[in-house]
Amino acid sequence: MRILYHHRTASKDGQAVHIEEMIDAMRALGHEVRVVAPLADQDDGRMGGGVGWVHHLKAVLPKAMYEFMELAYSLVAYRKLMATAREFKPDLIYERYNLFLLAGLMVKRRLDVPLLLEVNAPLVFERSQHSGGLALRTLARWAEGKAWRGADAVLPVTAVLAAHVRDYGVPAERIHVIPNGINRAHFAHAPSPAEAKASLGLQGRVVLGFTGFVRDWHGVDRIIDWMAGTDAPTDTHLLVVGDGPVRTELQAQACRLGLGERVTFTGVIHRDQVPAYVAAFDVALQPAVTPYASPLKLMEYLVLGKAVIAPATPNLQEVLADGLNALLFDEAQPGALEHVLQRVCSDSVLRGRLAQGAADTIDRLELTWLGNARRALSLVQARG
After folding, report:
1. Which of 61, 194, 197, 316 qualifies as a cystine partner to 66, CB 3.0-4.6 A?
2. CATH architecture, domain defined by 187-365
3. Per-residue pLDDT reduced to its tens digit, 318-374
4. Burial 309-336 (b: 16+ CB within 10 A, else e)
5. Residue 60, class by beta-carbon neighbours within 10 Å (0-12 exposed, 13-18 middle, 19+ buried)?
6. Which residues of the chain, if any, have pLDDT below 50?
């Protein structure tokens, strides 16, 4: 098929990974993909970067004006999409949903081309909760509902997120959950845990690992507090693969508790380096999670066969099962996280069993980008 892939993302974080992997997977399946997107900063492969001009606009413009500009961008994108569609003659449009973005829907209606809409977050809800909220919430809710109801198929990344989509009146038969995935090839040449530890000078340690852009709500401070207590084995070491706004605070906490030598931050690294660091983990940490998300880091933990610790939230339980591929804890129960940390760090047999269960999960649930692309495109192919 000829696929017109449209997005409005210019960042170099996990969003970029999802976009690039889905495009590559569609092409690997033999489809021709044409991409229409805004001009982005040159991608140097370094994860966790932002988009400076976007942040500048948000900072200097009144909130309502910025949101009107987002909606107005749909007209710019529509013209680009229409020009490409007339020349490319696509069999379908695949769009990554963004707030106030209606260009894909407009082209679908103009040319009668099927539209698959990938939804990674309920953005009206999300942006209402963060960054000072939305100035044009009624307009935003209208735009979100218009986009979701207008697509031929909506592809949320979790069943929890699918419930948000249904709340907008999208029929259940047009909602198809497709979680984030993994590209096995990118992790096929990761070193063994022993080799990875040796390269980092962490031989003989039980390595607790976290990847990503660390924020205060991620709960990494609780891990450091636990390591300073009497229940934590003294050979534990925390390895944070990434950076974040609370890095300085966490490093100060570690030094204050006498753990300065047992906590390591890599800083922002090239995405190709991630497997070599994650390979060193004995225990992979997901201390907290957005309740509707499908975390990319979780797929990285699973594909490398790491014992996972995570909260027992409905979205994570779509992939994780307590005692099979993870130890899950009740977020509302005081000390629950610390209890599972003590269990897994003190029991190498348990870690091994969870690690094997984690490694088996990718194939069992087909959590690959190729599988995701195949499932998504089959929705259009089935229509003939």
Report:
1. 61
2. 3-Layer(aba) Sandwich (3.40)
3. 999 999 999 999 999 999 999 999 999 999 999 999 999 999 999 999 999 999 999
4. bbbbbebbbbbbeeebbbbbbeeeeeee
5. exposed
6. 40-50
